[in-house]
Amino acid sequence: MNDSRLFDLAGKVALVTGGNGGIGLGIARGLAAAGAAIAVVGRKAEKLAAAVEHLEGLGARAVGLPCDVADEGAVTALAGQVADRLGRLDILVNNAGINIRKRPEDLAAAEWHQVMDANLTSAFLCAKACYPLMQQAGAGKIINNGSMLSIFGAPWSPVYAASKGGVVQLTKSLATAWAADNIQVNCILPGWIDTELTQRAREQIDALNENVLKRTPAGRWGRPDDFAGVAVFLASAASDFITGTALPVDGGYSIAI
To answer: For 48, how many CA atoms within 13 A lie in the half-sphere containing its CB?
Structure first.
């Protein structure tokens, strides 16, 4: 391939769950800048409409699709809606997720299932629903959003860590299952990123901001737009021989002592 087209996503269609804010919107902006049309999925209608308006303002073709990504029937319908509205589906970004910060002895079973469904089951359901469209097209890219808590443990986040560890292992299984279909499946592991989710964490965890800055070689919190480039790389032809990986995007947090 001509080197100038390695990162070109013109004509491609990307589905980004949880793409109406934070890391998801940062990824959507990056994919849109590379030429992709974007289907943004979220549960809050107002945020969804704002994200679509924002992407359209950048010159992208974008649609907003409300969906509970932990509902199998809704996710199956979602894949069809993307194909109907945008003509095809080439890229899936499984970014939707939640966290409940509690020590294990304080965590209810219902809370465990809520986080697992939102973070891990949703990734499986979305990948399964999108697979036939990618198989039919002869290629596809799936990017799963994991976490550095798939590497580390934390007393206040047992279910989030377990769900994100599962996302990494799911990534490897999907990568091996669908490699013959020319579908690459990879995972990103965000470090401490400045989002609504982590703003609440800074309120709940003593000295978190100071500890993150001290531990991170880059000397700052990450920003949603820090994910634009890695998303384009993993969604483009530049990564056609890379599959099953889990790539930290953390300013060096995971390698520092």
So the answer is: 16
Q: Helix or strand or coil: residue 89?
A: coil
User: Which pair of tokens denotes residue 207?
Assistant: 């000295």
**Predicted TM-score of the model (pTM):** 0.95
- Residue 254 maps to a domain: no
Q: Which amino acid does the sequence have at 16?
A: V
How confident is the model over 100-147, as pLDDT tens digits? Answer: 999 999 999 999 999 999 999 999 999 999 999 999 999 999 999 999
Q: Indicate which residue of 160, 192, 221, 233 is catalytic.
A: 160
Instruction: State the pairing for strand pair 140-145/13-17.
Output: unpaired
Tokens of 214: 């001290």
Residue 162 covered by a domain:
yes
Quote the number of domains for the chain: 1
| CATH classification of the domain holding 84 | 3.40.50.720
Question: Do 84 and 135 touch, CB atoms closer than 8 A?
Answer: no
> Would residue 160 show up in a list of annotated catalytic residues for this protein?
yes
Question: How many beta carbons lie within 10 A of that of residue 11, not counting itself?
Answer: 11
DSSP percent split of the chain into helix, strand, coil, nearest 5: 55, 15, 30
> Which is nearest to 186 in space by CA: 254, 120, 140, 250?
140
d(CA 26, CA 12): 18
In the chain, count H helices and then E strands.
9, 7
Q: Does 255 map to a domain?
A: no
